[in-house]
């Protein structure tokens, strides 16, 4: 897809640099100039910049305990395309497009559709804002308190 869309780049934020094998693959595919790794740790203003300026947030995880980056993307009005595994469908509900993280064709189609369909992006942004309101620290504290009180 990077070859199909001239002004599209892939930026990964967080984690380490690409492996030698990954860099070799990027060279082989002639997309090495369109792929950028930004190794960050929790630097919120910088992370916010990437969410707010991304065309799309893609999260191909096989397992997550919760998926805070997904809620962060919602809060920054960034449309999302995410794995249909783990807790993601429960968190995002209708605010995202989904794909199987082990199916490259399905992932590619979901990303392509989300990039091209501006109305879908707007709908996901709107629904993402609503979903993000369900995951505030205050609501988390209230639910924790309710659980503790029910155990007493």
Describe the structure.
The mean pLDDT is 91. 49% of the residues lie in helices and 12% in strands. The chain has helices spanning 20-28, 44-53, 68-75, 88-92, 104-116, 118-132, 137-151; strands at 10-13, 35-38, 57-59, 80-83, 97-99. It has one domain: Rossmann fold (3-Layer(aba) Sandwich), CATH 3.40.50.2000. It has seven helices and five strands, in the order E-H-E-H-E-H-E-H-E-H-H-H. The chain has 152 residues and is mainly alpha-helical.
Main sheet summary? 3 strands, parallel
CATH topology: Rossmann fold
What share of the residues does DSSP label as strand, in percent?
A: 5-15%
CATH architecture: 3-Layer(aba) Sandwich
C-alpha geometry: globular
Helix share of residues?
A: 40-55%
Order of helices and strands: EHEHEHEHEHHH
Name the poorly predicted regions: none
State the CATH class: Alpha Beta
Number of strands: 5
- The average pLDDT score comes to 91
Q: Work out the helix count.
A: 7
- The secondary-structure class comes to mainly alpha
Identify the CATH homologous superfamily.
Glycogen Phosphorylase B
Rg, Cα atoms, Å: 17 Å
Strand order of the largest sheet: 3-4-5
Number of domains: 1
Topology, pairings included?
Blueprint: E1 10-13, H1 20-28, E2 35-38, H2 44-53, E3 57-59, H3 68-75, E4 80-83, H4 88-92, E5 97-99, H5 104-116, H6 118-132, H7 137-151
Parallel strand pairs: 1-2, 3-4, 4-5
């Amino acid at each position: 897809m990077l070859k199909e869309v001239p002004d599209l780049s892939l930026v990964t934020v967080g984690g380490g640099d690409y492996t030698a094998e990954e860099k070799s693959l990027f060279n082989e595919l002639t997309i090495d100039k369109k792929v950028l790794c930004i190794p960050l740790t929790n630097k919120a203003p910088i992370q916010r910049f990437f969410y707010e300026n991304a065309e799309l947030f893609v999260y191909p995880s096989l397992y997550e305990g919760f998926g805070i980056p997904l809620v962060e993307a919602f809060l920054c009005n960034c449309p999302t395309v995410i794995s249909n595994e783990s807790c993601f469908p429960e968190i995002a509900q209708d605010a995202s497009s989904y794909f199987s993280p082990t199916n490259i064709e399905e992932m590619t189609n979901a990303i392509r559709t989300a990039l091209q369909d501006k109305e879908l992006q707007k709908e996901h942004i709107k629904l993402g804002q609503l979903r993000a309101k369900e995951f505030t620290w205050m609501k988390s504290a209230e639910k924790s308190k309710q659980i503790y009180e029910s155990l007493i």
